[in-house]
Amino acid sequence: MNFVVVKATVIFLILALTVVEPKPVPDARKKRSNTEKLINSLASQDLVTNLPGQPAVDFRHYAGYVPVNETNGRALFYWFYEAATNPDLKPLVLWLNGGPGCSSVGYGATQEIGPFIVETDGHGLRFNNYSWNKEANMLFLESPVGVGFSYSNTTTDYDNLGDAFTANDAYAFLHKWFLKFPSYRTRTFYIAGESYAGKYVPELAELINDKNTDPSLHIDLKGVLLGNPETSDAEDWRGIVDYAWSHAVISDETHKVISENCDFDGDTWSNKICAQAVDEVLKQYKEIDIYSLYTSVCIGDTASSNDGSMQMPRIMGGYDPCLDDYSRKFYNRADVQKALHVSNGPQLKNWSICSTKIFHEWVDSKPSVLPIYKKLIAAGMRIWVYSGDTDGRVPVLSTRYSISALGLPITKAWTPWYHQKQVSGWFQEYKGLTFATFRGAGHAVPCFKPSNSLALFTSFLLGESLPSAR
Ligand SMILES: *[C@@H]1O[C@H](CO)[C@@H](O)[C@H](O)[C@H]1NC(C)=O
Ligand SMILES: *[C@@H]1O[C@H](CO)[C@@H](O)[C@H](O)[C@H]1NC(C)=O
Ligand SMILES: *[C@@H]1O[C@H](CO)[C@@H](O)[C@H](O)[C@H]1NC(C)=O
Ligand SMILES: *[C@@H]1O[C@H](CO)[C@@H](O)[C@H](O)[C@H]1NC(C)=O
């Protein structure tokens, strides 16, 4: 019940477009960094050399499977981009998208922060000048099994997917991945993610922190970065409702009914009056893009996609709501799956950006990860939380309610942060946590504000305050 909002939009975004034949561009592997000698043969099997439509770049990238459980035959798919310059000197960052059931390759890597963004014309990829691999070695993981290309050979595994399962497999993945990439085994490490990864990221960080008591398993995790993160169900719901009201999506009357009848800390949905009023919120959000209140929705449907009659989407603020569909076309191509070491024959994997089955059948979701925040803060980790302030799904109010519930002392009062001489948003620093907003950005912030997002990422890695002067 608590994920209904996502459900509607996921279905809405599964659309189709015509694919134009690709022109493969060979990967330009001109410069060889001095990590070369450290990359063993296991990694070299995963080197991506002929991704169709890929712009030429100077850094190497790798993709493939890492088995995480031999007994049941589970393997997770990753895509790893070395930092564009000096990869040896830069940290390693794992990026996770949410859902649950959505792909970090389809969203993070190819719509948000990777170096190659899926093109809207179906030809291939365009170079992203604001890729986060300018500052770090970026690892994208499709997690858990059933998401994107990741799979299990034991179908009953799919009945057990939840937060704990996801964290355990992601943890196993990291150690197996380090065997392929030993030069990263002791590297400074961060975990970043958005949306439902607001649960995954702290949960994995906690697991790493716990296991780190064994020196042989130690991973040098230094902090986490969270974007519009689902954090605490009660605070998240309060924020959704108050934000919808304060942004003129629902009426005063609906908001009043919810205020008077919904106990988000208790058994919320057993109250019929509350449930109906919340349904009214969702009904209004189905009309617009809940993830980006002020941009247009993706118009089109699968049936009409091949006859050219599809109404073209309007593209505003660098955000194309139809990108999900371009990704689906791209990742289901045989040549693409071959280049990414997913499939080598006639048996293609059926890639989709989100799995609605996983979303509906999720067996365990922590109601709140705020206790984990406290634990990570006590362990001295850097925690940064940012929020695009035009997102209605995990709105800035939800995040503020959650942070407020932590009751942390303020160390730097609310102030604007600047990028290219403009107010990019506001931020406030607490003992153990930094909170920043992005003015005019939706749920997937880097889609809307790529340059600003890279600036925030850079500050995060340096552990420096955001620029508070124009
Ligand atoms: C493999 O997965 C199964 C089911 O999730 C679990 O019971 C088993 O302990 C796992 N094996 C290893 C070696 O982790
Ligand atoms: C899953 O099964 C296929 C077919 O038997 C096999 O090739 C593959 O290695 C298995 N995957 C894992 C992770 O064991
Ligand atoms: C790429 O970004 C850099 C700053 O990171 C900027 O100096 C350069 O002009 C940008 N190039 C393009 C083609 O936008
Ligand atoms: C691929 O998966 C989608 C949804 O996950 C489904 O609708 C479609 O029928 C599948 N296609 C094939 C060829 O199995």
UniProtKB/TrEMBL annotation:
Superkingdom of the organism of origin: Eukaryota
Catalytic EC class: hydrolase
Gene Ontology cellular-component terms listed: extracellular region; vacuole
InterPro entries linked: AB_hydrolase_fold (IPR029058), Peptidase_S10 (IPR001563), Ser_caboxypep_ser_AS (IPR018202)
Entry annotated with the keyword Disulfide bond: yes
Signal peptide boundaries: 1-22
E.C. number: 3.4.16.-
A GO biological process held by the record: proteolysis
Keyword Cell inner membrane: no
Keywords of this entry: Carboxypeptidase, Disulfide bond, Glycoprotein, Hydrolase, Protease, Secreted, Signal
Sample GO molecular function, one term: serine-type carboxypeptidase activity
Localisation: Secreted
Family per record: Belongs to the peptidase S10 family.
Protein name according to UniProt: Carboxypeptidase
Species of the source: Rosa chinensis (China rose)
